[in-house]
Amino acid sequence: MHEDVIRFLGGVPPFRFLPRANLRALAFRAQVAFCPAGEELEAVGDDGAPLLHVVVKGTIAVDAGAPEGAEHLGPGAVFGWPAGQGGAGDQIDQIGKVGHIGQSGQAGQTGLTGRAGRAGAEAAQPISTARAATDALCYLLPVQAVSDALDGRPDLRELLAPGFGPALLELGAAALARSGALAWQGGRPWQAVTAGEAMPAGFAAAPVHVSLREAARRMTERHRSAIVLLDDAGRAAGILTDRDFRSRVVAGGADHDLPASALMSAPVLCVQAVAACLDVMLLMAGRNIHHVVVVDGEEPVGVLSSHDLMVLRGVSPTALAERIGAAGTLTELVEAAPRADALAAVLLNEGARPHTLAATLPDLHDRMAARLFELGMAVLGPPPRPWCFLAFGAAARREAWFRHRQWSGLVLGDGPDGSPSVSEHAAAYFGTLARFVRDGLRALGFAPCPQGRMAASPGWTLPASGWRERYRQLAGQECGAGTPQDVPSMSLPVRRGMFDVRPVCGDMELGLRVAAEADAALGDAVRAGAHWPLAAGGADQADGAGTPFGALARTARALTAGQGVQPPETLVRLAAIAELAGAGSPALSDARRACEYLLLRAAHAELAARGAGDGGDDATGAAGDTGDACGTVDAEGGPNMPGMPGGADSLDALALRRARETVRALRAVPGTGGMTPAASAASVGAPSSLVRRGDAP
User: Fold this and answer.
1) Rounded distance, CA 627 to CA 621, Å?
2) What values do phi and psi take at 637, rounded to 5?
3) Is-contact 165 89, C-beta < 8 A?
4) How far, in whole angstroms, is CA 215 from its chain's centroid?
5) How many Cβ atoms sit within 10 Å of the Cβ of residue 648?
6) Which entry of 368, 489, 505, 644 is 20 to 30 Å from 141 by CA?
7) Distance between CA atoms of 557 and 333, rounded to whole angstroms?
8) For the stretch 203-233, what's the b/e string if a residue is b when 16 or more beta carbons lie within 10 angstroms of its beta carbon?
9) Nearest to 342 by CA among 279, 395, 401, 277
10) pLDDT per residue over 655-689, tens digit each?
């Protein structure tokens, strides 16, 4: 029996990280409890000491009285760690007051106010309501014995404490990166790309007897970092690189008229053109070299450098951005587009965090769209009035890191006469331009929105005044302001995603005006007591309570509504709340870490789906009316995450449970889902009907 306990605990965090001697000590203190369906679990043993429960078989329902309903825990789940035993989340301080955030992000006049008290404190207590949902088997471990086994390991204690602590984020992110597939290039696995495909076209070559001066001239002429030196039979006899010239010619003072054979590296390492790039990369790393000659049989056909491999893998965003900007045709853009996904794969597999991904990948997507507009305007001529291309939903939040479905709009500035009305000429011009961009983005792998929520569709190219009215209608329809007119039918998650808006290219000031209008309209709705910004709906309720990220995104959006947070990233919104509430608040720190994990979780799930051969248009996700059609993140922000390897071998279940606990703590902030709309409005002195604060700048 003890060996069974050791074997099982060896796959359950945090016990999986303990030495076997510690596991053995715990196993000898473990009790086995069979719990028939419906029976309540005991929180303490016969001696009155608290017990930690580890689910072995069956399902346990905990916190059945919580507003979200009971949470069902399966094999590998651990619960019952009492407060005061150490780890992040034991003490949840006051959230404090949430004030107004202006465009600069600084605290100003009071907006949403109130006190959370000890927000989430109930999450830090032992679970008092735990009942077997099915016949279940649990290991019962004395809390003191567990504490002794974890002595000196505060990072492991943190995995038992409520909340999403730093150790859980680090372990979870590392596990995701380790589980990732190799980078993809052009829709194929990295090991399937050959050296012949990866090498740049053309290379520098010369007979071995040419002078160093002539060899340098040919390298400069061909813009290459190496030159292949050929014997009389045309085979590769040696190679000279930039590094050789620096160290041996310039620094070493060699005579420039010496034959190249005097300083060349020989014999030269050659690889066949059909060799896999993965094998070439490992070979270069093992030999500590940076160039290989690619041959077809014995004939040199090119040179492959470590830099070429790095760019091929997509880890050079600067080079990719330059390639996109220099594309003179749609064909050249199409060739560059898959490298953005390759970059996403490499960054994820190398453990990049969401702030790095959000600062890199959406910018490449934006550059592709901007280049399409430039190519279109080169044919159509100058635009008749100012314009700005807008992104909505996950793309606006910079949380769609692979090529996603299109969800876009155009805002038009006033005409030459100062009139906001759109002339027939302007309508025809921008209609043609928008269709060109839509079709171009489709060719680049950004599938069109099935519901037509794109700038090329009727009703999605509007003057600034039209977008202002659109957002007033979208915000007001849930506050008794009547049925909106000329507003496409949208599900609740999609309607919320409309309030995440970001300018992509064009007149950015014009786009920021629309973003400000959207933010102001949502802020008015929140102050008026609207329930819909926080209500779960549609696909969000697939698991009965909504996804943790969906609830987190809703809460962050509602708490910052009307406060000018831009861009509308969930992490940026949480940072803005923390600035006002005090950065030391454990609940807010937990929320930011949970947000990071859930974003990475969704991205790795999409990477796995693409790696399994589900790439192309279908991989961008057919979200339908329940999402924003932006890949694995729906309009509400809830990652549609396929299951990871489960059971005791994964941190996934633990991390998702901690994320739910974090959401409950954050939602204790007044004005969010923990209060009724009426109470929310009363707590902030909001009007009983939707009131405009005046036009946004």
Assistant:
1) 9
2) 100, 5
3) yes
4) 47
5) 21
6) 644
7) 35
8) bbbbbbebbbebbbeebeeeebbbbbbbeee
9) 401
10) 888 888 888 777 765 444 333 333 333 233 222 22
